[in-house]
Design brief:
Distance between the termini: 25 Å
Number of strands: 10
Strand order of the largest sheet: 6-7-8-3-9-10
Shape: globular
Structural class: alpha/beta
Order of helices and strands: EEEHEEHEHHHHEHEHEEH
Number of domains: 1
Number of helices: 9
Length: 245
């Protein structure tokens, strides 16, 4: 079990999510502490995406509770969770293809009123992701998969989140881009923002994670430091499920 490191930034406490008779998550508990990059791993139909949805308020929690920054947020709307400091980079990035890169990034600041600070943060993000400076006026739909990942991550960061949720960041990327994508995630974590990565590519995620949880068929079967999980013989067993996550 994870050692006591003070108050968790995000905590799922014995969360179950059920759709009719189908139990997508059963009695799972996760902790993410400030400054951590935590990976949630598992094969298809393991419950990874449902975990993200329950954190973001898209999936209704059947039992158990979700806590963020010391408050119970189980019944909160997604908008309220965003305002509290949660941001997401969804599966497939989901940029608005007919809008420019910069317009997409600025959507992340839609709830902010401090225009000067927004401009400063945009400049800082361009320093972090210099490739986006070259693409700032380009339509987002013309970007490569790796560039879209940068744009989606920059959009999430514009809300000044305490925690970024990333749903399958390696999906659809060429192998050469997966390494670069996770280097960007590591950069965000090193800059002080906690990151919760839901990922099927265990090798890529574990290279940069501080801690990891492993799901199989909706149940938590393994947890530990990234090094412990990478060396575990039980890890392979968690990837035997079939179907959609």
């Amino acid at each position: 079990m994870e050692s006591n490191r003070g108050e968790a930034l995000l905590q799922l406490d014995r969360v179950t999510v059920q759709y009719g008779r189908f139990v997508a998550l059963r009695d799972v508990s996760y902790n993410i502490f400030p400054g951590q990059m935590v990976s949630l791993l598992g094969g298809n139909a393991s419950g990874k995406s449902t975990s993200i949805k329950s954190v973001f308020g898209v999936a209704k929690v059947t039992s158990g509770d979700v806590y963020f920054n010391g408050e119970k947020i189980t019944g909160w709307t997604t908008e309220r969770r965003v305002r509290a400091g949660l941001a997401i980079v969804p599966e497939g990035r989901r940029l608005f293809r007919r809008m420019s890169v910069e317009e997409n990034i600025l959507i992340g600041a839609v709830n902010r009123k401090d225009s000067h600070a927004v401009k400063s943060d945009l400049d800082n993000l361009y320093d972090m992701f210099p490739r986006l400076v070259e693409r700032r006026h380009q339509l987002a739909g013309t970007l490569s998969g790796g560039e879209q990942q940068m744009g989606a991550l920059a959009r999430a960061m514009m809300s000044k989140p305490k925690l970024v949720l990333m749903d399958e960041p390696s999906m659809g990327l060429a192998p050469s881009m997966v390494k670069k994508s996770f280097a960007l995630i590591e950069q965000v974590r090193d800059a002080g923002t906690s990151v919760f990565v839901v990922e099927q590519n265990a090798n890529a995620a574990l290279r940069i994670a501080d801690y990891a949880y492993v799901l199989r068929a909706g149940e938590l079967v393994l947890e530990g430091t990234a090094a412990e999980i990478a060396e575990s013989s039980e890890m392979k067993e968690a990837y035997l499920g079939k179907g959609d996550s």
